[in-house]
Amino acid sequence: MSMLSKTISCPFCGHPVHMDIEVTDEDQDYIEDCSNCCNPIHLKVHKDILHHSVQIFVDAEDEQYY
Predict the structure, then answer these.
(1) InterPro entries of this UniProt entry (predicted)?
(2) 13 with 33: CB under 8 angstroms?
């Protein structure tokens, strides 16, 4: 388990938000509030063991998938 520091843009207000993301072997799916506008940011974290990389997907919590 390791930590990854990343700055993302809020999907609501565009403000840069600094996040410390804990990287585990399992996929993660959670919500963090924007420190500027307080809207919920949906984060998905995937560790690709084969390619030794970490993928972070960011979207608005209220987006719907079809």
Answers:
(1) UCP037225, zinc_ribbon_bacterial
(2) no
pLDDT classification of 64: cutoffs 50, 70, 90: low
pTM: 0.78
Domain spans, the chain? 2-60
User: Using CA atoms, how far apart are residues 57 and 52, in angstroms rounded to an integer?
Assistant: 17
16 contacts 24 by C-beta, under 8 angstroms = no
Nearest to 16 by CA among 36, 2, 39: 36
pLDDT digits (tens, 9 = 90+) for 6-62: 999 999 999 999 999 888 888 999 999 999 999 999 999 999 888 888 999 999 876
Contacts (Cβ under 8 Å, ≥6 apart) of 38: none
Q: What is the CA radius of gyration of the chain?
A: 12
